[in-house]
Amino acid sequence: TKVPFRLNQNQALLTFEDEEVAQRLIKMGKHTVNLDNKTADVTVRPFTLEMGIKFELHVTISGKAINVAEVPELCIPEDWMRDKLELNFYKSEQGGGGEVENVSYDKHSRTAVITFLTPGAANSFVRCTKYPFFVNGSCYRLSVFPKTNVRLEQFQLYCGISKKTILLKGIQEMEDDEESIQDMIEIHFQKPSNSGGEIERIKYVSKGGAWVCFEE
Q: Which segments of the protein form a coiled coil according to its record (predicted)?
């Protein structure tokens, strides 16, 4: 998941390709930056993000069962409705389907789960969102969608610390536009002579603030 960080006015975030460059600048603590023939003493700080989350989401689509919704409310017994659903999906007009093993029907939620006897029989309904349902001389449209099994695995909380990114504080206000100042900061910290190195990303905010999102 993305972890947000609040970047305030007159601050900048610099992410370097090399972790050692960022750690070297952090150890220095303060740095004199050349901005348009002016010098500015800025503070280099590490920072900790809010708690992050890592997990794996496994989704398995059933080849034997489908979910059905928007089953019409009719004045017939529930077991009759189950029989109607079984017959309707046993002979699919759109192809596929087959012998039905079980029909689980919930009258209150107007939903049902159709389980076929043959594996793979449900695959033909994956792309079918509206399915014709003939009962009592009328045709209704059922919402059909795959039955899935969702598993959450390797759920972990981690402390968001970016070892390749530094926070610059105390950048003085200038008449130049935000983009120009950001370019000057980037040029300065890319030079090895200034203890810098190659920069992956940079974000400078001169007014207000911004939310910056970090990914692993």
A: none
Q: Tell me the average confidence (pLDDT) per consecutive run of 10 residues in the chain, 216 residues long.
A: 83 92 90 79 85 86 92 91 89 67 93 91 80 87 90 84 88 79 88 89 88 78
Q: Is the whole-model pTM more than 0.90?
A: no
Rounded CA separation 22/14 (Å): 8
Nearest to 195 by CA among 9, 30, 2: 30
User: What ranges do the domains of the chain cover?
Assistant: 5-51+158-212, 56-152
Q: How many Cβ atoms from other residues are within 10 Å of residue 86's Cβ?
A: 17
Q: What are phi and psi of 21, to 5 degrees?
A: -65, -45
> What is the pairing mode between strands 30-35 and 100-106?
unpaired
Q: Are the C-beta atoms of residues 158 and 1 closer than 8 Å to each other?
A: no
User: 56-152 has which fold?
Assistant: Alpha-Beta Plaits (3.30.70)
CA distance 192 to 24: 11
